[in-house]
Amino acid sequence: MKLYTGPVSLFSAKVRIVFDEKGLVPDEHVSVDWSLERRYLPHHPDIVRLNPRCKVPVLVDGDAVICESTVICEYLDELYPEPPLLPRTPAARARCRTLEAFADEEFFPAVWDQVEEALYPAAEGGRDVPRLAAARARMAEMYAELDGELAGREFFCDTYSIADIANFVMITAAATMGAPPDPVHAHLTAWLARTAARPAVAREIAAMRDYMAKLGTPA
Ligand SMILES: N[C@@H](CCC(=O)N[C@@H](CS)C(=O)NCC(=O)O)C(=O)O
Predict the structure, then answer these.
(1) Domain assignment of residue 84, yes or no
(2) Closest ligand 1 atom to Cα of 56
């Protein structure tokens, strides 16, 4: 398998954690270029060829070219079922997928607003302060919702799953950029510590922090 990821890409982080949790190492791992100034441009030529969206992560397995982090994670879970990262029953799988989609489609846009307004160099007109404030207000609401989902649970589903991985990478990015969950959300706070203690998660977070530290930016 050949895996393409971005060094600080949150969707790539999801996939790298899944590889690690399953004890898998890609035969080849390409970390595409990224910088604060140029972002992913110019795109890696293989990514241009393999993914019409020009985005990472991309997994190549023989003739199969798999784009989209969610699809890559499910592909890996089907090929290498142990340890399972999706629950077994249809209802539990539905809950897992819904919570993963929440991370990717609801939480990520607020993180992205924060990335553009607090991490990347300011656009020509300067920082859009209301955009950043609105993103953080949305995050506060989403933290309350996630805290409710975790009430009486160790993880989002019956056992640790892709729903935990997806939400963890988004929340950690938000926290790193100045918007951590309020400790009043005790279920969420305890879950964050529990998930951060997993070796595969800890290794990924350490690698991203090291990378950002070398760039001289907060991580
Ligand atoms: N829905 C996609 C999103 C992937 C994505 O947005 N990748 C970003 C990095 S986090 C990217 O490659 N961006 C390149 C660009 O926009 O130029 C997934 O889950 O894989």
Answers:
(1) no
(2) 12
